[in-house]
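Q: Here's a chain of 168 amino acids. Please give me its 3D structure as tokens.
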Amino acid sequence: MAVSADAAVVELLDSSNYVDWSVWVKTYLLAQDLWDVVEKEEEYDDDDDEEEADDKFKAWREKNATALHKIQISCGREASSLIRNTSSAKHAWDTLAGYYNDYNQYMPLFDAVWSGDWNEAKEFLTLHPNAIRARLPSTDKIALHLATDLEHEHIVEELVQLMSEEDL
């Protein structure tokens, strides 16, 4: 997918480049004095009069919209779908960080399943039991689905043994 001419990055966010992408976008937003709206939501000061509070809100709203737009146009389709209905730059940033950090955290499990290495997968699941429910962002599949697709019957059997009824 082509990068927009006014995007803040050289490549759109996808499941393989979150760490680099987040550095590029953060640096851009810092340079444009927009990072503060990503760090925290708008706060109101009780000491402000109504007109001053209104002016502060309008300034924050403009910065938020600009930061959110830069984040949105710097995302590929998958990432865009995660933040499509958001109106907050902070919420968009936090959503993407949570999603892609989970992806990177659980990637060793999917790599082990892909290669058919049950010992490696089991070791990872021992350290990270919640990974049994983790989903690959690009396919939304859990490790069991991947093992089934790849016809790694021994891994399928082992994963089923570890999963609760809810997981299945």
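Q: Can you summarize the key feature?
A: The two ends are 35 Å apart (CA to CA).
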